[in-house]
């Protein structure tokens, strides 16, 4: 894939979202609209290949936004970059089904490494950034954690970065 036409994502898991797992919350609905708009903007700017890290929360929202846009724009591809084989094993059954549904509909699946270790998520994040020219981040401003590290790495690498401020969706 051409990095100039590739966009990846970073964002928080449900435990860091103000609504937790309640995706019917109006704040979550508004955020998903913002994510959809950011994906459409990336497409208009030339992105055709999108990479998601497949974590619960924002990664899955982004993957679903790409899959929805792909219904209208057939030149879009979705890559699911899995940090390890056991990524979703401990998730609730409904989230495992959602994960499997996205994997079944993606165009490319990348397994960054077979077994879990404490660095596999970071390796997955760097894999995505290293193959992209654009990043869409849903970020709460806290300067620690995987989202902050991925955003900092993308900025260091010079990616065009769209930041959706999670604080805008807390009211």
How many independent structural domains?
Answer: 1
The major beta sheet can be summarized as: 6 strands, parallel
CATH architecture designation: 3-Layer(aba) Sandwich
C-alpha Rg (nearest Å): 15 Å
pLDDT averaged over residues:
96
> How many H/I helices?
5
Strand tally is 6
Supply the helix-strand structural class: alpha/beta
The CATH topology: Rossmann fold
Q: Tell me, what is the CATH class?
A: Alpha Beta
Principal-axis shape equals globular
Report strand %. Answer: 15-25%
Keywords:
Rossmann fold, globular, alpha/beta, 39% helix, 171 residues, 5 helices
Provide an overview of this structure.
This protein starts with 5 loop residues before the first strand and ends in a 6-residue tail after the last strand. It has a six-stranded parallel beta sheet, sandwiched between helices. By secondary structure, the chain is of the alpha/beta class. The mean pLDDT is 96. Helix 1 crosses helix 2. 39% of the residues lie in helices and 18% in strands. It is built from five helices and six strands. Strand 5, helix 5 (146-156) and strand 6 (160-165) form a beta-alpha-beta unit. It has a single domain (3-114, 125-169), classed as Rossmann fold, CATH 3.40.50. The protein is globular.
Short characterization:
With 171 residues, this protein is an alpha/beta fold. It has helices spanning 26-44, 58-70, 93-105, 120-130, 146-156; strands spanning 6-10, 49-52, 77-82, 108-111, 134-139, 160-165.
Secondary-structure map with pairings?
Elements: E1 6-10, H1 26-44, E2 49-52, H2 58-70, E3 77-82, H3 93-105, E4 108-111, H4 120-130, E5 134-139, H5 146-156, E6 160-165
Parallel strand pairs: 1-2, 1-5, 2-3, 3-4, 5-6
């Amino acid at each position: 894939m051409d990095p100039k036409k590739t966009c990846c994502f970073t964002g928080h898991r449900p435990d860091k979202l103000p609504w937790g797992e309640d995706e019917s919350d109006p704040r979550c609905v508004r955020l998903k609209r913002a994510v959809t708009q950011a994906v459409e903007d990336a497409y208009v700017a030339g992105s055709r290949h999108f990479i998601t890290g497949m974590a619960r929360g924002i990664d899955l929202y982004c993957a679903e936004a790409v899959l929805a846009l792909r219904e209208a724009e057939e030149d879009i591809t979705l890559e699911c970059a899995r940090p390890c084989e056991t990524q979703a094993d401990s998730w609730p059954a409904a989230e495992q089904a959602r994960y499997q549904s996205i994997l079944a509909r993606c165009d490319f699946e990348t397994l960054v490494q077979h077994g879990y270790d404490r660095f596999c998520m970071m390796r997955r994040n760097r894999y995505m950034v290293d193959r992209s020219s654009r990043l869409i981040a849903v970020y709460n401003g806290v300067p620690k954690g995987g989202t902050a590290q991925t955003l900092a790495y993308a900025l260091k690498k010079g990616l065009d970065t769209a930041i959706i401020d999670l604080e805008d969706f807390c009211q």
